[in-house]
Amino acid sequence: PNQVKTITCIGAGYVGGPTMAVIAKNCPHIRVNVVDINPERIAAWNDTDLEKLPIYEPGLKEVVAEARGRNLFFSTDVDQGIRDGQMIFISVNTPTKTYGTGKGMAADLKYVELCARQIAKVAQEDKIVVEKSTLPVRTAESIKRILQAEDTEHNFAILSNPEFLAEGTAIDDLQHADRMLIGGEEDENGQRAIEALVNVYANWIPRERLITTRVWSSELSKLTANAVLAQRVSSINAISALCERTGADVDEVAHAIGMDSRIGPKFLKASVGFGGSCFQKDILNLVYLCRHFNLPEVADYWEQVVKLNDYQKHRFAKNIVDSLFNTVSGKKITFLGWAFKKDTNDTRESAAIYVAKELLDDHAEIHVYDPKVTKEQIFKDLEYLLTQKGDCHSEGSEAMRNLLQRVTVHTSPYPAMDEAHAIAVLTEWDEFKTYDWKEIYNNMHKPAFIFDGRNILNAKELAEIGFSYKGIGKG
Ligand code: NAI
């Protein structure tokens, strides 16, 4: 049978780490190496204290505990990893470009290209190269050309195998995948490579869930999946604005339409706006591709999903300022949550960062409590946004220091809310629902406001305590 014995994954991030851990768990007969150029990240993956893994995901530490040292290995030796792996996954970051052509829109493929060149340089035998990163359509073709140009001796098959896991439920999503998509070339070499990867996943995923397609369809399916998911969020968020004007309740609307089996109930939760490293980046990438192929109407259609999301974040911040009698200057506003969603420590593109910036511009004092995000990360996020938006020229500048002076990060929730003028829920962490809201109310300035950006708290109970409660899309 067409079975690989060794797999190497380049990139030990939110995708590479959990994905390879689950492969190793389900395939004890395959040696899985995860390599990364970031030594701190690798050290954290190797830490004997499983609380120190670089990524927080429910169930991850159990899987790592089972497989690490048995058939799962983390290392900074990228070259050795490439030599060892019969199959090589590329799972490096593909952020939005911050310079040059396509700035702010296109995916930056420099890390992916570096990997391809590295593979060509050190490979000593034929390899199957798997694109796990999310990539624009036709990237596989470029990777193949680079590999073949740099190394004419060996044979490379390129597969596209996009990852559909959601952070916060990554392990469960990987273990019980709705589907696994594998795109490959139509020639015999391509088909053999597809078969080898199918044989890996077939160790735990039912065959009928393994979809094989042509490479380009697979690449485009990933961008389309994220665009459609984000579009659902922007659609319900758009309606939330209308609900607030008309007196309708967006959760009732979502429930009512979600019962229609053509629509379905999932991903219809109104909120302060979507975040995460993927939705915005992948839609902008799709928009860029459409413009490139001269389809401006299609590009504008999808771009509106991102614009609506920006509008939703802005609306939330503006509602806080308006409600607090048009000024938040010097007022203590406490953020519950900083991660872009619950059950992850990932903060990339989190709505909290944008809302915080708007309130800081209005001279608010921001206090933050998040159960899993570190103080260092929160400051890093703000510094990044402030330099990106041109508010401050460099990290550590005086303007930056002045702004960040008004941010305090707490490691426990109650002190964070002491003497606050308002509380804003930015992440839907379950623990927020269990707090003693009466005590919190007693220790706040009055009128005590709560802006629930996730509609998770009990509005009726809070109103009875005396809070001025504002949810999203509650007319
Ligand atoms: P990440 O930033 O967490 O991890 C990427 C890792 O690659 C970093 O640790 C970095 O040091 C490493 N790296 C970069 N260049 C390297 C090189 N030349 N050699 C060795 N290591 C290198 O990124 P994340 O979130 O894991 O995303 C990876 C890809 O997966 C992206 O294309 C993303 O769009 C896609 N994706 C992400 C999902 C998510 O939920 N985060 C879900 C599905 C796809």
UniProtKB/TrEMBL annotation:
InterPro entries linked to this entry: 6-PGluconate_DH-like_C_sf, NAD(P)-bd_dom_sf, UDP-Glc/GDP-Man, UDP-Glc/GDP-Man_DH_C, UDP-Glc/GDP-Man_DH_C_sf, UDP-Glc/GDP-Man_DH_dimer, UDP-Glc/GDP-Man_DH_N, UDPglc_DH_euk
Binding site for substrate: 163-167, 222-226, 262, 269-275, 340-341, 454
Active-site residues annotated for this sequence: 278 (nucleophile)
Domain UDP-glucose/GDP-mannose dehydrogenase C-terminal: 334-459
Binding site for NAD(+): 11-16, 36, 41, 92-96, 133-134, 167, 278-281, 348
MF GO annotations: NAD binding; UDP-glucose 6-dehydrogenase activity
GO biological process, one term: glycosaminoglycan biosynthetic process
EC number: 1.1.1.22
Database matches in PANTHER family: UDP-GLUCOSE 6-DEHYDROGENASE (PTHR11374:SF3), UDP-GLUCOSE DEHYDROGENASE/UDP-MANNAC DEHYDROGENASE (PTHR11374)
Similarity comment text for this entry: Belongs to the UDP-glucose/GDP-mannose dehydrogenase family.
Protein name per UniProt: UDP-glucose 6-dehydrogenase
Record organism: Draconibacterium orientale
